[in-house]
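ok so I'm stuck.
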Amino acid sequence: MIIDKILDRKDGQKYIPKQFYNDVMQYGEIGHGIAEAMDGGTEKQVKTELGIYIIKNVYNLNIIDYINTVDWL
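replied:
not stuck anymore, here's the structure
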């Protein structure tokens, strides 16, 4: 799941943007907004899409704080 990839990074796993993008693409429609933002959007758009993903899936909102502290592109 995408949340696992986010939390893995938070826990210190090495982050490779291309690998994250590929992983997000594997989840199809669930990760569509994130992948689209990574494809042609800005850092802010990627963070927004990740935040939307967190909210829609009712994950802990504190994860959004983490998302906003690191670069995703």
